[in-house]
Amino acid sequence: MKICTAILTAASVCLGVWIPVVSIDTLRPAAEVKVKTIKKPSVETVDFKNDLIPMFTKLGCNAGKCHGSAIGRGEFKLSLYGGTPEADYDEIARQFGGRRVNLSDPESSLIFMKPAELVEHGGGTIIDDDDNHARLLLSWIQQGAKYVEHRQLKHIEVTPRKFIATKVGERTALKVVAYYNDGLTRDVTNLTQFIADDSSAVAIDSDNATAEVKRPGRHIVIARYSTEVIPVEVTVPITEASVGLSTEPRNNYVDREILSTLVELRLPVSSTVEDPAFLRRITLDLTGRLPPIESRLDTDLLDRETVIDELLASDEFVNFYALKLSKLLRIQSKIDKNKVTTTPQAARAFHDWLAQQLRDGVGYDQMTREIITASGDSSEYGPATFYTQVEDARLQTEFVTEVFMGSRMKCANCHNHPLDKWTQDDFHGLTAMFSKLTRSPVIRLNPIGKNIHPNTGEAALMKIPGGDFLAPDTVDGRETFAEWLTARDNPYFSKAIVNRLWKSLMGRGLVEPVDDFRSTNPATHPALLNQLADDFIEHGCDIRHTLKIIAMSSTYARSSNPTQGNEADDRFFSHMLQKPLEPEVLADAISDVLGVVAQYGDETLGTRAVQLRDGAIQSDALDILGRCDRTNSCEGAPSPTGPLAQKLHLFNGKLLNDRIGASGGRLDRLIKSKKTPLEIVREFYSVALNRLPNQQEIKFLSQFFDAPMPAAQQREALEDIVWGILTCQEFITNH
């Protein structure tokens, strides 16, 4: 073979290990990165962890769809993305009767012949028999196929981290430099895997390490070397012409950051909504209610800050955000396998406790610490219910990290997280804390509780995620975890909650999904997320403060009607997104407009849906409207009953049809009061949409009532109009 001669020279061995065979300068005109030169021996043995493992990753050998899957492929299993290199070495060098490595004839080694497809290989040809990867692999075998780790990786730097192209088709070179604990830095671009989140938007040339933009917008390319995963932002302005936004109002730092990004993307902004639309929007967003009809605007300008302050101080705000937190914390009574795990009393106690914390203005950090460290009878002490909502300690770890860190740590249950920093030690170390608790209506310490680490087969030691192991004699590690979690410098806690508050008002998180924080899923506006988090901490983790900051911005006050040039924007907030009303809010809005109360389980007639203290309370209407089953997260996919079932129910179901003309309802009362049909229609517009019908709508509606008609026919026409209002997009969304 042509490769044999090259392998026999020491120079090629050296080139195959620490210096790319092809000169860096010939590969790409990358940005300059200062690389520290350290004299090394002329020949250094191949570093299994820092060279071979990244090579396998770049070639895709240890990906989930190949040998990195849970059961491997073709009787050959590697750890996912090289998470456990020691196990990979054992699999390659010792398993399969040692046939994967042939020290006497390296080119006959299966670990080489398979990817070179010199013998049949299900993955096809992965390497050429004379490329850099082949030389590196054969050099390692020739040197004795040893497990060598010369140094430990500290971090990598990728350049550029952000590339702004002027047009589609532009390319940028990518360069990666690794920094090690012994002071060595080296270019590892040729051992780095680059993957575009959307391959139709960015084309990657792996051989030359370049990225070509194929579509306007903001896109992410992931650079992976060893355990490091770094996102690269690639942007092409969405429109060709620059936009002038210098005169747009900048009420606070929210507007400064949003407008800066819009200028970069050349996205124009929609106009500011008028007062009636703003009043409806902010009232729904902060209280889950339609504005009362008596607050309909007159000719005076609305003092928006005063309205926001009044809403934040209202009991309705407490009710609505207690519901939101209850959904986040999955509060509901339930019976699992004929055993009551959360009693109705416990669900109500937890909900009432949350409402009282909001009423008293308690900081979210203090609330969280009390929840994390809770013990006692859940029926009497609400926070203890937190530990009855899931079935075991491992699910508790997933629950805790999703809610309070915005992190999906569950991947680290079986293997180190492929897209994040979390290791199996992190997952099982936290699970070890929750294993020390009983799982019954009374939460208490269980000294003999333990969590078996799948890698060691022994009881896992308690550990702070990404931090230190706790002392082996630690009885209850939750206090330490709670202090770490809510500390001012914790990089997850405050960002996770302000991102949810942002989504609550803006319809989309700065990080989306909101429970998937990781470096490879960056925020649309990282600087804004940091400012919101810092400001939240500086103001005592006050939920109301952050909501007001967002609500007072001109960004929040933009119309949901796109303008020319920003029609396709669904994440940069050049216009307001239309937000479907939550099932509980929609149910209450329907009741308010119709003037007919709904019955929920055995609750007192007149209890509003947003006031329900137990997510399991029976209600066919809420289920059809898409109520979340709190058995799992309410932040994922919509309920399987909607939106099609919701639309069908609104079109032809009892929720509307049996109530529109009900005796004693709003329509019935207005008809009996002898108001004219147009007066009745105007009132329904006012209460449902917080506006009066426009001239075009009046012209259309008048045709129904111009000619005299029997009372029964007139009533039927009015019922149809009310039905139309309650099913229109303007009513069922907050826009």
Structure at a glance:
The chain has 735 residues and is an alpha+beta fold. Among the domains are: 2-26 and 42-142, no CATH class; 153-236, Immunoglobulin-like; 364-485, no CATH class; 583-734, no CATH class.
Polypeptide structure, described:
- This protein is of the alpha+beta class.
- Among the domains are: 2-26 and 42-142, no CATH class; 153-236, Immunoglobulin-like (Sandwich); 364-485, no CATH class; 583-734, no CATH class.
- Helices cover 38% and strands 9% of the residues.
- It has 28 helices and 16 strands.
- It has a 4-stranded mixed β-sheet. It has a 3-stranded antiparallel β-sheet with strand order 1-4-5, with no helix packed on it.
- The longest helix is centred in the middle third of the chain and has 17 residues, at 344-360.
- The radius of gyration is 31 Å and the shape is globular.
- Residues 1-42 have low confidence and may be disordered.
Most strands sheet: 4 strands, mixed
Determine the structural class based on helices, strands and strand pairing: alpha+beta
- The N- and C-terminal alpha carbons lie at a distance of 68 Å
Write down the overall geometry.
globular
Number of E strands: 16
SSE blueprint:
Blueprint: H1 2-7, H2 10-17, H3 24-27, H4 48-59, H5 85-93, H6 110-113, H7 132-142, E1 153-159, E2 162-164, E3 171-173, E4 175-180, E5 185-187, E6 193-196, E7 202-205, E8 210-213, E9 217-225, E10 228-236, H8 253-265, H9 275-287, H10 304-312, H11 315-328, E11 334-336, E12 339-342, H12 344-360, H13 364-372, E13 376-377, H14 393-405, H15 424-434, E14 442-443, H16 478-485, H17 493-506, H18 526-538, H19 543-551, E15 579-580, H20 583-594, H21 620-624, H22 644-652, H23 654-657, H24 666-672, H25 677-689, H26 695-702, H27 711-727, H28 729-732, E16 733-734
Parallel strand pairs: 2-10
Antiparallel strand pairs: 1-4, 3-8, 4-5, 6-9, 7-8, 9-10, 11-12, 13-14, 15-16
Helix pairs in contact: 2-7, 4-7, 8-18, 9-10, 11-12, 14-15, 17-18, 17-19, 25-27
